[in-house]
Design a protein that fits this description.
GO terms for molecular function: methyltransferase activity. Keywords: Methyltransferase, Transferase. InterPro entries: Ppm1/Ppm2/Tcmp, SAM-dependent_MTases_sf, TcmP-like. This is O-methyltransferase. It is globular, with a radius of gyration of 18 Å. Strand 4, helix 5 and strand 5 form a beta-alpha-beta unit. 36% of the residues lie in helices and 16% in strands. It has one domain: Vaccinia Virus protein VP39 (Rossmann fold). By secondary structure, the protein is α/β, with parallel strands linked by helices. 40% of the residues are buried. Helix 1 (20-33) crosses helix 2. It starts with 8 loop residues before the first strand and ends with a strand. The protein has helices at 20-33, 42-49, 65-83, 99-104, 120-129, 171-184, 197-204, 225-229, 231-234, 252-263, and strands at 9-10, 51-52, 88-92, 113-118, 136-140, 158-162, 189-194, 238-243, 273-279.
Amino acid sequence: MSSTPSAKADGTVLTGVSETALMTLQVRATEARRSDAILDDPMAIQLMDSIDFDFAKFGTPRRQDMAVRSLAFDRHTRRYLQDHPKATVVALAEGLQTSFYRLDAADVGHEFRWLTVDLPPMIELRRKLLPASERVQMAAQSALDFSWMDRVDTEHGVFVTAEGLLMYLQPEEALGLIGECATRFPGGQMMFDLPPAWFASGITRGLLRPSLRYRVPPMPFSLTPSQAAGLVHDIPGIRAVHDVPIPPGRGRVFNALVWAAQRIPVFDPVRPVFTLLEFG
């Protein structure tokens, strides 16, 4: 850590959609503490231990979906960095993700750059609690304020991540963000995830909740795999769309369900979407 705080940071400064970052952090840190963890994330453990917050409000953290999601994003970010070792990774609405530290410990070298884009309270927490690096910049602003794009060095490639972001935007906002990235970062890539429509509707209507004490913010945007594939025709600048496989998790039942959902077309309308875009 950059310094040892005299007291834990106050997690209650995060509200609304930003508060969901505490829930996903809890899930990843709980997973990383397991002896059979599928995600090696020591920084997530340190980060959670540095925040004063009633994490119990989120219910049981014994789930692996957020860890599996992070594995998927790590996998494809690594692939891009292996081909573009000096690229800039832009993490939109990064929240309390610790992706930079996991990738920096991987096999992609230490030349890639990182730009975190998030709201001021989140950036303040990250500056206070995470180790500083000259390769990491932070933009304290909404991802929908496109001025952050002016800070991106495009010379060596750009990989944009929108992990756990687009579902909380209005459809026109989400598609506008994708379109602007496609225009500004030719040759780059962008990865995002979305829940299926039934799940997003259940969250928005308050029918699906992680606990009786916590209600996830509304999710107005979702796409089916076929709708995501159609982005190559709908948004100028997108050269290719890839339906990203969900990485294996822990347990035969979990992996069997994931395998079936991704390979049997009848499940397409009811499964999550992990999408990788290539910009032309």
